[in-house]
Batch of 2 targets.
Target 1
Amino acid sequence: MSDAPRPEHCAAWFACDAPAGGVPAAFGVVTAYNPGGAVTDPEANRAADAALKARLERSGLAHFRVTGRSKDGSHQEPGYGVAAASPEAVRHLAHEFRQLAFYWVEDGVVFLMNTDGAARHRVAPWSERLL
């Protein structure tokens, strides 16, 4: 991903299975779907999602299901919210699963972050992007 964000990433909405007590004050959202930004067949995407879930369970990082999607639901990418003190732990996961970008939510604001590099683009308040 170049420093300029993809418009479809900035237009993302989220469906969230929040943990008891609500979402953490800081967390990342990462998916394993469509690695490298290439549309991938559904079975490969489901296998990648299962691998991400297993990786999160092994890591001990608190996580919960978050699905990034278009507002109309025509495109959806299941992923996980990952509690972290900084975006670096989530950046590592996004890189491991060959993602171009991930979301970082801090103090109620969603940011789009490049997997390679430090570009950080404000998207919107989290509460305004929940479906």
Note: The radius of gyration is 13 Å.
Target 2
Amino acid sequence: RDELGDFEGFLVGDCYSGNRKAANDASGAIVLAGCWSHAIRKFREALKEAPGSAQLFVNDIRQLFEIEREANDAELAPKERLALRQNNSRSILAALLGRARRLRDDYTDAGKMAEALRYLLNQRKPLRRFLEDGRIPIHNNACELAIRPIAIGRRNWLFAGSLRGGRAAATVFTLIESCKLANVDPVNYLADVLV
């Protein structure tokens, strides 16, 4: 709540319950949007269990990503991107969700395919958000890649020595990732700042 303050905009992510709580508790209007990278990952994990059905979902989601790649390559403005999505992605999404509803009862166990279908159907509203606004990305891969070094090193940094050490590490990680976003070499920047 403190971090978000009066932020208004889109929060793109997986189905982590903290996202919904943050959106509900924030003073600004936050719209939750789903991440199709998380959705496709679930179906990839189900390929061994249900190769035919899972592959159909993977193929459809790949088509959504291909449409986004076309929009990126053409450097479309948000309104143009939205029009492309309305024309090309909407029908793919409708077929994909319709298939998920039909197959839902075929996979009632606790297997990977049932999990993938549950994820897709439970997250259908946030996953459809990209059809409402051309500014909403269909995935949060940029964020995932930015926090990957932290997630990988989490065990190494489990004991930062103290609360103060943890805060210092968080500050340094934030500074480094901010430099990357601003196309500033963090090593040179830190060398200039620390000298």
Note: The chain has a mean pLDDT of 85.
